[in-house]
């Protein structure tokens, strides 16, 4: 079985506060990611988490604002606006049950959201919809854009 290394977070554990607590980030990154790498057949869990960590950015980071460009154009075209896209993704994601992931997909995964309970329970208890509202404040759109461009 291949050995997967735990990628460092590209920011500090407390960088996403007040949307995602340091406690969740520490537990989620260290325990869950390592546990999923130790388990057989959780390769997708490893890929998903690797994308998810990169996909987030520190609170108030300029990369959390979607700048004009191909990704914004596509979102405006397909959803009407970024706010409408967030509403639609959150609505679809909130309806999912169990341990799953929410994705913004356009030929390839552009943005992934971990909606396993371990990703939000300490901060949001069972109110997944509040977590889904919060997560977009620390979404790294700048990091997502190259994936969109590559998928064109
Ligand atoms: Fe997770």
From TrEMBL:
GO cellular component labels: mitochondrion
Domain Manganese/iron superoxide dismutase N-terminal: 3-35
Gene3D superfamilies: Iron/manganese superoxide dismutase, C-terminal domain
One GO molecular-function entry: manganese ion binding
EC class name: oxidoreductase
Annotated EC: 1.15.1.1
Limits of the Manganese/iron superoxide dismutase C-terminal domain: 69-107, 109-145
Record's keyword terms, sorted: Antioxidant, Metal-binding, Oxidoreductase
Catalytic activity: 2 superoxide + 2 H(+) = H2O2 + O2
InterPro entries noted in UniProt: Fe/Mn_Superoxide_Dismutase, Mn/Fe_SOD, Mn/Fe_SOD_BS, Mn/Fe_SOD_C, Mn/Fe_SOD_N, Mn/Fe_SOD_N_sf, SOD_C_sf
PANTHER family tied to this protein: SUPEROXIDE DISMUTASE 2, SUPEROXIDE DISMUTASE [MN], MITOCHONDRIAL
Similarity annotation: Belongs to the iron/manganese superoxide dismutase family.
Purpose of the protein: Destroys radicals which are normally produced within the cells and which are toxic to biological systems.
Name recorded for this polypeptide: Superoxide dismutase
Organism for this UniProt entry: Calocera cornea HHB12733
């Amino acid at each position: 079985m291949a050995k997967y290394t735990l990628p460092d977070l590209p920011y500090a554990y407390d960088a996403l506060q007040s949307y995602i607590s340091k406690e969740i980030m520490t537990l989620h990154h260290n325990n869950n990611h390592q546990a999923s790498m130790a388990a057989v057949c959780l390769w997708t869990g490893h890929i998903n988490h690797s994308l998810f960590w990169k996909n987030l950015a520190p609170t108030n980071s300029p990369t959390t604002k979607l700048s004009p460009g191909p990704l914004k154009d596509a979102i405006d075209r397909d959803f009407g606006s970024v706010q409408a896209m967030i509403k639609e993704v959150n609505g679809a994601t909130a309806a999912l049950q169990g341990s799953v992931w929410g994705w913004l997909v356009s030929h390839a995964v552009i943005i992934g959201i971990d909606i396993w309970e371990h990703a939000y329970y300490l901060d949001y208890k069972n109110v997944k919809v509040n977590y889904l509202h919060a997560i977009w404040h620390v979404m790294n759109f700048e990091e997502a854009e190259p994936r969109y461009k590559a998928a064109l």
